[in-house]
Amino acid sequence: MMIWLALIAFPIAAQGPSDVPASSEPHVYELDVINPGLPQPAELLDLETPQALFESLMDAGHAEEWDRVATALDLSDLSVSEQAARGPELARQAFDIVNRSILIDWRGLSDRPDAVEVIASDKEPLAGEPRRSIVLTHLRADGRDYSFRIARLKTPNGEPVWMISRQTVENIPALYERYGPSKFEKSLPPQLRKQAFWTLAWWEVISLPVVLILALMAAALVYAGIRRFRENLDEERLAHSIARAIHLPASLTALAGTFALLRSSIFNFSGTVASILDPLEITLFVAAIGALILVIIETIIDFASGQRTRELEDPDNEEARDYFTKLAAGQRIITVFVVLIAAAVVLIQTDIASTLGFSLLASAGVLGLILVFAARQALGDLMASIQIAFAKTARIGDAVYWQGQWCYIERIGFTHLRLRTWDERRLMAPVAAFIGESFENWTKTDPSLMTHVELMLDHRADIDRLREEFQQFVENDDAVMDAEEAEVQVVGHDAQAMTVRFLARAEDPKAGWKLQCRVREHILAAIGKMDASDERTPVFLPREREVQVAQQAS
Predict the structure, then answer these.
(1) pTM (2 decimals)?
(2) Confidence of residue 17 (pLDDT cuts 50, 70, 90)
(3) What domains does the chain contain, in order, with CATH numbers?
(4) Three-state DSSP class for 446?
(5) What DSSP state is assigned to residue 485?
(6) Are the beta carbons of 35 and 166 closer than 8 angstroms?
(7) Rounded alpha-carbon distances, angstroms, from residue 501 to 455, 485, 492, 523, 526
């Protein structure tokens, strides 16, 4: 029985703020005496509730009544002789920390002696229960997190009071070193260190625009330096392409880095302003670094594939087309990971989960629904571009026929494919079109292409003479792969004329297009000679055309 009582009593004793046993009353920490070494001030602070504690502490702190503020600190870890000597100094440091770095939600501070939260929520699992310890916030210093806590204390014959806990008082010097005034601020005249408005001192009102101007100047210098560096480089070199790509991200990095450096080393802004600047600074810096990494990767890949654009169009470079297409898909996957990692860093470093109610939205699923709805098209395009790359339906360097245009694929991006037409125009085609619609890939398996030319000729045209003329042409043209495969076919007719098709195979679409033009030119020239040498009525061109030409001549 005694063993069970000891096991039950152990965790209760471990939670006390000092080595004295915990009270039999479960909702206070009981001490024999509270701060016996401090002199009793003429006017006591109101320590009955958490809200009263901070209201009276802030009033006394602004009045610089450090002896009074010291009575709000549990100095149990100090000897009786040290309490009177160190208490006011620790009180001043605690006030600076609270005034500078803790955003006090006055509506969130309980105004009840037992600190009972009457409204239940996921953030208040102890709603309805009296409390004897409250964590106001977490502050980071020296590579670790410190909790800023208040506790409810009671002496055997006294009333319970709320005070800054002894663990927090023990950590005040380390927190003050991180969140207290900098050497620059300490060197300023007292008038500039007085509070102007909000939580800002006069020196902060003056310094904030100065810091911003200095950061903008650093960004402008980096921007000008990169531009000067680019001017001395050959535009065809990789270094020029990288310098052009990092122009803006590097400038943003300089802006955020200079701003952070000035804030951490010289200007230690306080209170609400710091809570706004910190997440903005981290977000801007992480975004700039992420963009810097992504543009360098993209520039290197684009430069490598751009230098080999003509080679990739070569029918024999099947492996090269596969390689650069998979490389582009890998780039998109890396981009997704970089964006996710950057978002995670921002969320963790800014503690947005606790400061903006992010966890409440996430637990209800509202944020997830908003993000999915907003990003559904972008996510669909991303998956489509990756699917195109790995399914090899279209590769960088492939010749495709899309919406009446003969093009080469130059780039497969997140949302669009960049196509280069035969006349050097650029078409931007949505990736979804190459997933949900049909298109012709002329280099998918065999780059060779059967070219054809169709001409409308008179029904009395001598097809055998044309076949002989065409056969002589294909036997002497180097672009024709197999002269025996070439054919002349009558593929249709109507009341005015018949349709004659001339077929020949070329080794790739580009050679096929040129061959097609040469075939048309040669056959039309041959027909013109045949008509001119025939003493009878011309029989190769359609009759309707002959009549119209004759009427125009007369």
Answers:
(1) 0.51
(2) very low
(3) 8-180 (no CATH), 185-307 (no CATH), 317-446 (2.30.30.60), 449-553 (3.30.70.100)
(4) coil
(5) G
(6) no
(7) 7, 14, 9, 11, 15
